[in-house]
Design brief:
With 504 residues, the protein is of the alpha+beta class. Helix content is 50%, strand content 6%. The strands form three sheets. A four-stranded mixed beta sheet has the order 5-6-8-7. A hairpin with an 8-residue loop joins β2 and β3. The radius of gyration is 24 Å and the shape is elongated.
């Protein structure tokens, strides 16, 4: 008998570890073979890699401030996944931010399947049922979507499973620690754990103990986030509904076309069918699945309540729906004794789920012109734009040069990103003049005019170089560069669509 496992939990680990390995590695191989970063470049990926780099550079501890942006003053910043930061720090020191990010992502994917198998075995499922359940929960299109978007904190589904494992084993200390770990890994997994603990505690009082003591133990993380990321505000109901689950069918992820926004609440027909039958045997679990599913739509008077009114992405309640549905389906798979059924939900999610089954890759290269950056401050033009929640922000891909390129050149930026509307940094007044040259900004403000410029405020702030991204500025690039030269800047270097100017 394996150490740490009860006799009834031993068995079935071979197929479970195989599923975990296949789920973690196979979808990533094409991107890894090309030396790319795992994920789409259009949403949160580059900020996640930049955040890991900054977190590792500011170790030890839990960094709550960065002077890399909103320079020279800096701004509060809370890395979305301290767990990835801590695990990735030694990897960052050995291999750099790209390899560290990719490895921590693969580890999170592997652990989500493997740990959930252990949790479902502890809850009482047999080897086949637990394998089926691990596929429904851990190898789901839901968690695949987090990997696609680069939402690094969302990939740690293993923390919720580890907490459930501790509760099922009736381990009070372990359940408290793992509950706090779940909250620290992701606020959304934390809220799911809160709801499950309320219901589970009726039968297992350890769940209630973990809820109270675990929230207290995780309070430093909550305080750190609230004290640094101060830009968040309650959402309008229409925006929240747009970020909720949808009943509209979606095309399979392998269908041609780009979908960088990998939000989904998909459950396959096999999961729904097995879960419906299993609901008769585990009605309490079925109630948990239904509650999480209803909450995932983002509607209802409960969203007027404190805390709930701050839920920005209600579809993420789906983690709880999947966890409960996995138990229901696994119960029936154990009864039917058909080995192939254990693999069916994971295969169905891969083939019919709306998220692409192969992880996209994003360029890890940084243009050579950044080697000429000497700092201490670099002004990239154009900069970021802040958009209201729910509005498409077409400036997000600029994170590749505004944030990710810092991992090479190290110079600070005067721009203050809003990080999905939850950060609030003070930007220098002179940036507004440069923002007026941004074609995306001009669409919102047709009255904006590009130039003339005065370089004195830049010198006072510490800006020594300006990097013009001609492809982003389009027709505004030529007049902007002419205005820079007229103000006294000199062209230092050019590379394709990039022009580096020095401020004398």
């Amino acid at each position: 008998m394996r150490k740490g496992l009860r006799k009834e939990e031993v068995g079935g680990w071979g197929p479970a570890l195989l599923l975990a390995f296949l789920w973690a590695v196979l979808p990533a191989l094409p991107a890894l073979s090309q030396g790319q970063i795992l994920g789409s470049p259009y949403t949160d990926l580059y900020p996640s890699v930049w955040g890991l780099d900054g977190f590792a550079a500011l170790q030890p501890g839990l960094p709550l401030w960065t002077d890399r942006v909103a320079a020279p003053a800096g701004m509060g910043f809370y890395y979305s996944s301290p767990l990835h930061g801590w695990v990735g720090t030694p990897l960052w020191g050995l291999f750099g931010p790209v390899v560290a990010y990719n490895i921590t992502l693969l580890l999170a994917r592997f652990a989500t399947v493997a740990v959930s198998f252990g949790a479902f075995r502890a809850i009482g499922l047999g080897p086949r049922g637990a394998l089926c359940a691990a596929g429904i929960y851990g190898a789901s299109p839901f968690f695949q979507g987090y990997s696609v978007e680069g939402i690094v904190e969302g990939t740690d589904g293993w923390t919720l499973a580890l907490w459930a494992w501790a509760v099922a084993r009736r381990r009070p200390v372990a359940s408290v620690i793992t509950f706090a770990l779940t909250v620290a890994s992701s606020w959304y997994l934390g809220m799911v754990a809160c709801l499950l603990a309320l219901g589970w505690g009726i039968r297992e009082r350890v769940a209630w103990i973990s809820l109270g003591a675990g929230l207290l133990l995780s309070s430093p993380f909550l305080y750190g986030f609230l004290s640094t990321m101060t830009g968040a505000a309650p959402l309008e109901s229409s925006v929240r509904v747009a970020m909720g689950s949808s009943l509209m069918p979606a095309l399979p992820g392998w269908w041609p076309g780009l979908n960088p926004f990998a939000m989904t609440s998909f459950m396959g027909l096999s999961t729904l069918g097995l879960g419906f039958v299993g609901a008769r045997e585990r009605p309490g679990v079925a109630i948990g699945a239904v509650l999480c599913y209803l909450l995932s739509f983002g509607v209802g008077p409960w969203y007027w309540l404190p805390v709930m009114e701050s839920v920005r992405f209600p579809y993420r309640w789906h983690a709880g729906t999947l966890f409960c549905a996995a138990i229901l389906a696994g119960t029936i798979v154990d009864r039917l004794k058909m080995a192939w059924l254990a693999w069916l939900p994971a295969i169905e999610g891969l083939l019919l789920g709306p998220i692409e089954p192969i992880l996209p890759g994003s360029p890890a290269e940084i243009p050579q012109i950044y080697n000429a950056v000497q700092g201490p401050l670099l002004l990239d033009l154009p900069g970021p734009l802040a958009m209201p929640p729910g509005e498409p922000n077409f400036s997000r891909p600029r994170s590749r040069y505004l944030l990710y390129a810092q991992t090479l050149h190290g110079a600070a930026s005067p721009w203050a990103p809003d990080f999905n509307g939850v950060a609030a940094g003070e930007e220098a007044a002179f940036l507004q003049d440069f923002r007026a040259c941004d074609p995306l900004y001009q669409k919102l403000h047709p009255e904006a005019t590009c130039g003339p410029f005065h370089l004195a405020p830049l010198k006072v702030a510490g800006v020594t170089q300006i990097l013009v991204h001609r492809d982003e500025l389009r027709s505004q690039a030529a007049p902007l560069e002419q205005a820079l030269i007229a103000a006294g800047a000199s062209l230092q270097q050019e590379q394709e669509n990039l022009a580096l100017y020095r401020i004398p």
